[in-house]
Amino acid sequence: MESVLILSLRGKELPDAPRTYRLNKSRYIATDMNLSLASLRPELLKIFCEAPPLRRVGTPQDVELAVLYLLSGGSSYVTGQDLAIDGGMQVSSGNYKL
Predict the structure, then answer these.
(1) Is pLDDT of 72 > 90?
(2) Which of 10, 19, 44, 80 is least enclosed by beta carbons within 10 angstroms?
(3) Paired residues of 85 in beta bridges
């Protein structure tokens, strides 16, 4: 679903750039839901830890820091970009071997 939403928003940044809205996504983050799932299926926790090239599960603080950046003046000239908070999964092409 999020891919469809991202595709439907792609290209809309330019006409709306002055009003700016952002859509963010994250994966392999140690949320209550992900950890609950991993407790039911321990192999998922292994994947969450080993699949990202950074070899760790992302923390809520990782997401918080990215959100702070997006809310700060430091991102005022950033538009139409993906900010992947995924430990490098986006650039690794999913090369994790089970």
Answers:
(1) yes
(2) 19
(3) 26
